[in-house]
Amino acid sequence: MIPLVTHTPRLMLLAASRALLTAELHKPQYFPVLLGAALPADWPPGQYDREAMHYFLEQLTDGGRTAAGWFGWYALHKATAEAPRTLIGAGGFMGPPDAAGVVEIGYSIAADWRGQGLAQELVAGLVQQAADTGMVRHLIAHTDADNLASQQVLLRNGFARGVPVSDGRLRFERPVEPTPAA
Description:
The protein is of the alpha+beta class. It has helices at 18-26, 31-35, 50-63, 118-133, 148-156; strands at 5-7, 11-15, 72-77, 86-93, 102-109, 138-143, 160-161, 170-175. The longest helix is centred in the last third of the chain and has 16 residues, at 118-133.
């Protein structure tokens, strides 16, 4: 079973569920209550849009329990004495690994939370999550050629620039070493 919550120093990463995605899409007033977090004003961020939400919900519905943890993840900034727990971004995998153990990741951070190293921390959490499954051998990610900040996030997380893809985006990739069993 894949863990559905993981922690980084400042973030709690929570795997999307059918209940959370349904609320996010159809009952947005209940979404922050179910999530247990405040929402940023510009939610949803970047490429995490309604189309992505629908895709993740469809995959979780079709795949049942085996799909849990292989699609969307919410990035929640941990509560502090000064601020409540807040949803600051989303990321995740585009599905379970293929036969060769390859998985694609993606991520977006809400505008007010950018420039604080949180995207780098989110990606590091996703890399660790992939390693912890023991099933992933290689990660890939794509970013627009003009998105230098995203490219730096990937490079700082051990990704190397691969070949450009036909739509003009840049491909990044990195090997994943499974986490040794305790």
